[in-house]
Amino acid sequence: MNKLTIEISSYPKSGNTWVRHIFREVLRGTNASRIELATALHQRGAQQIKSLEPIEISSLGLSLRLYKSHICDHPELNPNRVLYAYRHPLDVLFSALNFHATQALMLGKKVDLSVFRDARPKMVEQMLSDGDISYYFDRFLADAGASLFPRSLTGVDTYFDHVGAALDNPKVVGVKYEDMCSDVAGAIEPAICEVLGLSQLGATINYNYINKNTKGSDRKDFFWKASSGGYVELLSAAQVDRLCTHYQQELKNLGYL
């Protein structure tokens, strides 16, 4: 058996959960010893990965320890390979804001109110109605998302720091959220093969089933729009142009310009 530790990573609100569900169906399709979502570890340490029981895939000759972390290539967990999802920063911005608001307003969870203007949580639609969208756009233009997830992304300040460092890491296989929206199998299956060291996957994945449990589910508290390019409905063309000018090289590096 080839023993591998595989991390599923992303900047938050970039498609990580979608990828985890797809990976679970890979386990199902290859008759793995267990079929489960990758365990979320994040800031927890090496003792946690040691406690994960390996998942055996006899048909592929693999023994996997599989986990999710928003800390890419977690230094304490030291994965063999990382499957990293990334998404347009403006879609990430509004998905993150709506997620935080949902946690506070709909689920009653404690959130860091510094994320919000005047510490007042609002859903994105309400921000738009109240004329607050420009405030959040201008803040993102200034800090590239450093204020979106305070204290939760160890050692990384901004969206571009996180994604750029990940895609420069030789352990990482990147998959773009927008490519998954256009052709999910064509985008994700070669990436999964690469992290597992396979020439072909050898599994049929039921993407309709996955979508019913993720993007197409009733869990709008978590998945919200689950689409690409929604920021164009919230921002003016001039605002989008400002972002493209300000972060021109970074966006080019990610294939968004």
Walk me through what this model shows.
The chain is an alpha/beta fold and 257 residues long. Strands 1, 2, 3, 4, 5 and 6 form a 6-stranded mixed beta sheet that branches. The mean pLDDT is 88. It has 2 domains: 2-88 and 160-213, P-loop containing nucleotide triphosphate hydrolases (Rossmann fold); 89-158 and 222-253, no CATH class. It has helices spanning 16-29, 46-51, 89-105, 124-130, 133-143, 159-168, 177-182, 184-196, 207-213, 237-246, 248-253; strands at 2-10, 39-40, 55-57, 62-69, 81-86, 172-176. It is globular, with a radius of gyration of 19 Å.
Strand content: 5-15%
Count of the separate structural domains: 2
Main sheet makeup: 6 strands, mixed
Poorly predicted tracts of residues: none
Number of strands: 6
Reading the helices and strands in chain order gives EHEHEEEHHHHEHHHHH
* The first-level CATH class name of the largest domain: Alpha Beta
Give the C-alpha Rg.
19 Å
Mean pLDDT comes to 88
**Class per helix and strand makeup:** alpha/beta
| Shape, principal axes of CA atoms | globular
Estimate the helix proportion, in percent. Answer: 40-55%
CATH architecture of the largest domain: 3-Layer(aba) Sandwich
Q: What's the total helix number?
A: 11
Q: Please, what is the oligomeric state?
A: single chain
CATH topology name of the largest domain: Rossmann fold
Distance N terminus to C terminus? 43 Å
